[in-house]
Each structure stands twice: as C-alpha cells, then as structure tokens.
Amino acid sequence: VDGPDDSEILVPLDRRVLWLWWTTGAVVVAVAVVPVAVIDFVARPLPAGVLTAALLVIGGAVGGVLPGVRYRRWRYALREQDLWIRRGVVWVTVTVIPYARLQFVDTRQGPLERLYGLAQLVVHTAAPGTSGRLPGLDATQAQRLRERLSEVEPDAAGV
Amino acid sequence: MAVWAIGQVGTLLFLWLIGTLPLGIVLLLGGISVGASAVRYERFRWLVEGDALIVEQGWLQRHRRVIPLGRIQSVDLVRKLRHRLFGVVELRAEAVGGGTTEGRLDALSPMEAERLRARLLRGRDEARATAGPPSPEEGGADSAEAHAAARERRAEAPAPPAETLAQMSRGGLVVAGLTGGRVGVMAALLGFAQQTFGQALTEWMERLPGLLGARGLLVLVVAVAVGAFVLSVIATTLAFWGFTLTREGDNLRIRRGLLEQRSDTIPLRRIQSVRVEENMARRICGLASVKVDVAGRTGADGDREVGLLLPLGRREEAVVLAARVLERPELAAVQLQPMPSGARDRRLVRAAVVTLVATAAAVGWAHAVGLYALLLALPAVAAAIDAYRALGCARTANTVVTRYGFVVRRTAFVPVGRLQSLALTASPFQRRRGLATLELHVARSPGVWAGAQAVDLEAKAGMGLLHRLLEASR
User: Fold this and answer.
1) Are A159 and B296 a contacting pair at CB < 8 A?
2) Which of A96, B162, B382, B454 has the most beta carbons within 10 angstroms of its beta carbon?
3) ipTM of the modeled complex
4) Which residues of B173-202 are buried (b: 16+ CB within 10 A; e: fewer)?
C-alpha cells in the first residue's frame, strides 16, 4: 500500500506539523500528570514519585517518537483530478477522492495551529464518514487549496 | 383533526392507564388537545400551485412552506391505525437535505392522496427534465442514457404500468420472523418493562430462582426464548403483511403493513448500491434479503426498513432482484473471484489464537479438565474456512461486486458511477501477507453497515483495481 503511481510523488506535510504534534503531546502529558502526581504523592500506592516518573518517561517517549512516524507516513498528492492521502501508523490507509465528488471543502485552524501558522484542509463527499483530512498545511496554502477545490464543477454521483 | 386528537389522546390514555396521571388531568389535557387539534385543522392549508407544493399552518405564528416539486425526492403514503379508523391517509413528501419530512399532509382521502402523489411525482420529473442536465441526481457514464430513456418512456406512456418484482407469502413472513434479527424485540420489551415497573421487577426477578427451583427456571428460559420467536414472527407479520415491490416507470414502490399500511417510493436513479444479506440461519436455508442504499434518506420515524426490497426470498431470487433493480441483468450470473490463500491463513491463525487463549484460560481455571477446550478448534476452524469462503470480489464493465461477513454475509453491488471515494487499507498483519482491503464509499444512510469492501485482496491487485475504478468513475 503506497503511492498513486510510481511516476507520481507523494509530498510530505509541512515540517512545522511535527512541532504541532510534539506540542500537543506535551500538553496532553502535562494535563495527565496533575491527577497522577496527586495520587502518587498523596495516596502513595507505590514509593513516592514512581508513578509520575513512569508517566513522564512513557509519555515523553510516545509523544516524542510517534509524531516522527506519523509525519513519515502521512503524505498526499494533489493530482489533476483527484486528491490522494496516505496516513496511519498501524493501519496504513490510502484514500482517493476525485475532485468531482467533493460536496464541500473546509479549512480549520485551532489555537495551536495558529501558533505555528498551520491549517487543516478537510474535504467531504456525499458518502458518510469518509472525509479526507490534511493536517499541517501552511495556512495560506490551505486557503489557496480550498479556493481551488471549491471551484471544481461538482457532478456528485447521483445523490 | 380527529387523527391529530387521537394521536395525543392516545398518549394521555396510556399515561393514565399505567397510573402516572390522575383522571381529572387526563380529561382536562384531552379537552385542550382536542381544541388545539381543531384550531390546527382550521389553520392548515395546502395546495399545489405551478411547480411547488405549498403548506400553510400555524395559529399565533403563520408558517408558510414552499417546496419546489423538482426538489422532492420521494412521496410516501402512510396509514397508521388512527388513520384507518377514519379512512384517511398521511402523505409525506421528502425533499433533499434536512433531517425531517419536509412536506407532511396528515389526513387525505385515499383517492386524493393517490392523485396528489401522482401529481407530485409527475411535477418533479417535469421540473427535472426542463432543468436538464447537469442535475445533481445524475452521475457516471450511464446518466445521459438513463435520462434519454426516461424521457422516451414518459413520452410513450404517461401512466406506466406497474410491474411486480417481488412479493411475500404468509409462510415466507413466518420464516422471515423466525430467522430475522427481530428476536431482539423481546429484549427491548423486557427493558421497557424494567423501566416502567423499576425496582419491583428487579426484586421479583431476584427471588425467581428460589421460587421456581432449577427446573422451573429452565422452563422460564425456554418460555422466554419461544416468546421471543413468537413476538418476532408477529412483529414481522405486522410490518410486512402483503409486502409487494413493484416498478412503476422510474420508481420502485413498496407496499406493506397490516395495522400501519405504508407505501414507499424509491426513485431508481437515487439508488446508490444494492446488497444481498444472509445471516447464519438464512444462509443454512439458502435464503436471503435484499436492501438498497439511498442517499440522504432520513427514514421517517426512524424506520430502518425503508430500503428493504425483499424481506426474504431464495438466494438466487435475491440476486436476480438486485440485478434487475440496478438494470444490469448480467449481474445475476456474476462469479466472484476468491481471495488469495493468505486470506485463509490469516483466518486459520485467528482460529488457532482464539482456541489457545480459551484453552489457557480454561486450564488456569479448571486445571487438566480445561484441556477439553482444545475441542474448540473444530468449530473455530470451520468458522475460519466459512469466513474465508465468504470473501469475494468481481468487477463487470460498470459494477463492482464484493462479498464478506461471517455472522451476516453481505454481497454488495456497487455501480462504478456511484463511487464517491475509494480507500485501500492494510493492517500490520495484512501487510505481512501482502494483503489489503479496498473500501468502496458510496452515499448512503450512515451507520447501518460498514459499506462495500473487498477484504483481503492481494495488495498489488487492490491498487490496480483502485486505479481502474478511478478511471472508470470519471
């Protein structure tokens, strides 16, 4: 399971998305560490500090390594008539969405994404639950893509 | 008016009967609801004007809704018990988008309802024909032909004759009830009783073993099981009594129901895919049911049976029906290609793992006696081979056929022109054997099933098929 064609090259996401994912991971660990530390130092099921340290080590390792794997896996290609997205760490999925089937195209930008100047591009077809998502695009590029894809004349297959 | 009043008074009576409301309040609220229904009736007006259905209603705030006929997707006639009491019919006109029924006329005389239905459908087709292509309802290579054919048919025969595609006999309904998934109705009823009577029932159930003894408990369990089957047969019979599927011009029409009579219309061109379903019991008997996926269909009242084209029939009949509905008769004879042997090996490995885990647990619990759990290998391997045989995929000029499923085996027929998007997925286990799953995404009601998939294709072949389908769906 890989690219659209040998001749076509799947491009990676913007490198800044790595920092976005690392930051998100750090925030999640920071939020989780508070209740764990309370249990650790107040209830003391184990010698004080062990649980907190374990969480920090495991959380740090997963949060540090996973974004790298994801970044390498997550690639996309905007071909003439369709969008290809490859993603997934355990389950690797290649999704193809012909532009002609697009119902609507969104860009989304959360606070962390704004911090790094990134945006998500989300495309929807008439099929439920099969939206295509491109995280970590440069914000202005995402805007441009949205406008370009919105202009494609839809011929939505018999909805 | 009386229909509305009964709808509300019925609820009140029920609340009174189960003792949550005193009689005085019931009478008061009943009077109010009859009065309100009268006012509502006075202010309710509808008409078909030009190419739109106009519905006006509301007392303090007038509400006027204009539904262009071209937007109407389907027109259904429903007769609930309260409608039959007064010899009237409810008409529901469904338009694109929105989660509810857009045009709803609660009480019409049957004659008037039939006339209006025909008028709305005709108006819709005319509005679309003049709007011409590129209507969003058409797609793929076959749209132009279908359009031309439809126009021709209209020109030749203004009122197309109905052609019966499927019917259900009474015996068939009983078998459908016995083998269907409606046995769960009993569980739902028990849950309802539990909620209504609450604590008392739970306590009573806890005392049961003491009261009845072992044999009594066994009898009770058997009685509940038999009761579930009986209820299931009754529910199926009520819902599908006199089931008839006909084709009238470009529409499929389903009539069914004993107490609540329904008449649903499905435009052929809105069908996204058709599937033949066989659960285990039906597979053993060579029986199957047929369902269609229709985009954006809300299924008014949460009725999931709307897309059911055939509650039960012989498997061969079911496949022929699916092919006829898609107007591709060659599909009836299509032979599915089996998946590579790696797919079978995966399922055998799964069976072995399940057996070993169960045995380990049994030995841990009952020591040496637990080794008998190894006998589980027999059914597990049989199930693995059956699950492998379920897998299949075929492609004709303009349709993909996929089949998978062990508990419920589903054969899906997906016209290539209906494909919205495609995906090829591989888990780590699939990657090790060079396999992948091709998902075919079509517009359908969400959540009913996972959608058509060619499970455990050879990864290379899957990518090739994906490319060819992408070409063909342009």
Assistant:
1) yes
2) B454
3) 0.85
4) bbbbbbbbebbebbeeeeeeeeeeeeeeee
